[in-house]
Amino acid sequence: MERILVVDDEAQIVRLLQKYFASKGYEVSTAGSGLEAIEKVKDVRPHVVLLDILMPDMGGIDTLKEIKKIDPQIGVIMITAVIDEEIARRALELGADDYITKPIDFDYLETCVMVKLAQLPG
Amino acid sequence: MKDGCKTRQQLLDELSKLEQRILSLERVNKKLKKDKTGLEQDSKRLRLIFDNAPVGVYMSTPEGRYLKVNRAQVDILGYESPEEMVRSVTDIKNQIYVEPEDRDRLEKLLAEQGIVKGFETRYYRKDGEIIWVSIYIQAAKDEKGKVFYQGTVVDITERKQAEEALRESERRYRHLVNFVPIPLFEIDLAGNFKTGNLAISEAFGYTEKDVEKGLNIAQVIIPEDIERIVSDMKEVLRKGKIRGSGPGYEYTGIRKDGSTFPFIAYASPIFHGDDPVGFRGAIIDLTAQRQAEEALRKSISSLAEAQRIAHIGNWEWDVGSDDVYWSDELCRIVGTSPQAFSGNFAAFCELFPSEDRETVKVAVRKAVKEGRKSDIDHRITRPDGTVRDLHQLVEPIIDRDGKTIRVIGLVQDVTEKRQRERELQNAKEQLIQAEKLSSLGRLSAGVAHEVLNPATIISMELQLLQKMGDLPPHVQEELNICMEQISRIVTIAENLKQFSRIPVKHTAMTDVNNLIEHELNLYAMQLKIEGIETDVQYDPDLPSIPIDREKIEQVIMNLITNAVSAMEGKEKKVLRIKTGRNTVHRKGVCLTITVADTGHGISDEHMPKIFDPFFTTKEPGKGTGLGLPISYGIVQEHGGMIWAENNEWGGATFYVSLPIQRDSLRNNA
Asked: How many beta-carbon pairs below 8 A join chains A and B?
């Protein structure tokens, strides 16, 4: 079972994403903040994390750093509100696998997840 | 023949002889008579001459008595008659001679020469009055062989008095000349000093004796001038008889002690008849004049220099003559050469561009009509086309009657100052704008994000709806319209986000150490006032990197300002700035600047907010809370990173990392 962690401070978005991916057969955990996300990563060990960039406490970038510390293999797809080249670039340098912009296109997002999962070892 | 009887013939012969003898005797007698008469006549004539000679004639004895004196002699010596004189004068030497030694001297001369002419001495008249006489004396012997004197005496008292008067006059004149403070001289054609007054000896450092002994102009003029003085002397002679003095000639004199001084000589030739024999004239020491000239020149030069340094020039318009004078500096300011300007007021005004001409004219008019000064600002176009900003003070010079007779203007080229003012104003505006934009940008970013979330949710809901299937086409259509609108919102949000970017204007290879040093210098005074120590460590091997210098300067300025504020009230204030190279987070090699203070540090609660717009720990009114957000944006725009940590000294350290190579690594997965 492929595990996905959805991280966004916007509850509705989390709900929608969880509903969608659950319906596609993924095991979905959720987090509403960077700190929560890190805890969940440690607990659940998801394969892919969908990570919002702009979050109040610990920003997406910092969360990304932490996640990569825990497990560099985890796939992380950044979700950014508007394309910010710098942040995107930085995220990629820090190890993010991809980034997509809001508003989220479900199909496109699912494709990215599939690709990442396929790339993971084992 | 018969003796004792003379023949008739014999008697006739004797008779004839007798007759002849008588004739000759008669002739002799006649001659003798004639001679006697002649002698008598001569004697009478002599007597007449003797008696009536206009000079005193006398005969005297060596012992001192008069044998014979004539009328004139009597009159000269003031006696009544010859008889009285002969009777009363018993000792000529002591009675007549004022200096008895003179008679001795006279007799001695007489003994040597036999005749003495023109012997001058003084006599006492009968009444004791002293007169001057000139004596002619001869020694002779009478019938008995006794020596007597005879001769003439002339009263030369008047002549003597005239001589004395002349001498006295000459003495007075000489005295005057000698003490006149202008050096006067007479030289012969060879340049020897014939006479000179006290002043001239003093001028050249010699004594009067030196001059008397012999002094030549070659000794008192520097060698270089000698040739010239000789040709000048020739020129003066060539010009002929000059009345008074001609133009002066300048030379450098050399004193007895070797010191030199400049002087000017006025001279005219001295003639004996038609031949020139020398020159007489005066000299004037030009040292004082030269010094005054030099002082004036220096003063003028100082003034010109001061004007040049201050870039202040001046002009003066003489209302009456319509002459305009202006200083060198003014020419420089206006960009003309002094010769190019024709010099009257109208021409002067022509130099200003037409818009400014009126300003100047108004100011001048005010000065002339109202006698008031003005302060004006205007521009001028130089001949080469450059435009300069000028600041002028125009002032009237008013005479006793209250009429403006001159107008003066002080002109200062304030172009650079104005430029700086304009630049400062520009910079201020830019800063305000940047801050505005930045805060707006930050806001926009926030707004964009805020707006996009609901938009995303709506979009996702719409997608879900669409995926539900079995939707009637018109419903599908409406859904599509909704999706389009969502796109629109997204576009608007994207634009807003764009707005939040602080565009990099122009990058240039910059030495960051240099940049920081420059900023520190600007702060030097303030740091000193605040009592802040600085500890600066620059990495000398730092390469130059392409950055927007102004923007990065803004960042450094911001960090320093924050550090200074943070350390307020602290006892030990140290500002530590370091530059160095290091590797950052897969960014590659970066140039990192650290600015550390010994302030209060940043609390955990505040740390995440420090780069937020309008976040500030200062009281309202102090600090906008925009500094760090803006710095953040700038550093971001350069592809760098800025963050803060608390440091070991109790304060905060800000790190700014800028990539050394701009083309960052975008490693695609």
From this structure: 79
**Per this entry, what is the length of chain A?**
122
DSSP annotation of B187: E
Probe site for chain A from B442, B452, B459, B460 (most A CB atoms < 10 A): B460
How far is residue B474's CA from residue B596's CA, in Å, rounded to a whole number?
65
Chain A CB within 8 Å of residue B70 CB: no
DSSP string across B400-421: TTS-EEEEEEEEEE-HHHHHHH
Residues of A in contact with B636 (CB under 8 A): 86
Kindly report whether the global pTM for this prediction surpasses the value 0.90. Answer: no
Quick one: angle between helices B415-467 and A106-119, nearest 10? Answer: 90
Take residue B503 and report the two structure tokens written for it: 């565009």
Q: How far apart are CA B253 and CA B239, in angstroms?
A: 25
Q: Do A57 and B456 touch (CB under 8 A)?
A: no
Instruction: Please count the other Cβ atoms lying within 10 Å of the Cβ belonging to residue B80.
Output: 10
pLDDT in tens, A15-70: 999 999 998 899 999 999 999 999 999 999 999 999 988 887 888 888 999 999 99
Could you tell me the two tokens for A49? Answer: 């994390």
Q: Is the per-residue pLDDT at B530 higher than 90?
A: no
State which amino acid sits at residue B517.
E
What six digits make up the tokens of B382?
């130089």
For residue B453, give the nearest of A13, A17, A19 by CB distance.
A13
pLDDT tens-digit map of B392-425 = 898 888 888 888 888 888 988 888 888 888 777 7
Apex CA A27: angle with CA A21 and CA A32, to 5°?
Answer: 75
The tokens describing B326, both together, are 């202006």
pLDDT at B154: 92
Is B448's Cβ below 8 Å from some Cβ in A? yes
